[in-house]
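User: Here's a structure from my thesis project, written as structure tokens. My advisor, Dr. K., wants to see whether a designed sequence matches the one we expressed. Can you design one independently, without my sequence as a hint?
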């Protein structure tokens, strides 16, 4: 559902949402309603365009908070109607 590299330092992690063309649309609608707070990667681009990437802050989250957030994200992605059809 998601690709990422474990950060060696810092307070953010970038994730690629597999099968999602526009993370911003997903985040601004369904994710917020589900209590998933992420920043769409497109807002960091100099020329905004659709992007499957999101950024998450983890510096103040407990392990339990992270588990809950990732469970919600997985549930959201599993039911995402805008996912690409895989053939």
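Assistant: Designed independently from the structure alone:
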């Amino acid at each position: 559902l998601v690709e990422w590299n474990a950060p060696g330092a810092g307070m953010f992690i970038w994730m690629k949402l597999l099968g999602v063309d526009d993370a911003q649309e997903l985040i601004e609608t369904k994710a917020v309603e589900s209590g998933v707070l992420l920043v769409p990667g497109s807002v960091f681009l100099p020329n905004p365009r659709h992007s499957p990437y999101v950024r998450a802050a983890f510096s103040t989250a407990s392990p339990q908070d992270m588990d809950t957030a990732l469970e919600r994200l997985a549930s959201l992605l599993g039911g995402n109607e805008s996912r690409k059809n895989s053939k």
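When you compare it with your expressed construct, this may help: Residues 81-87 have pLDDT under 50 and may be disordered.
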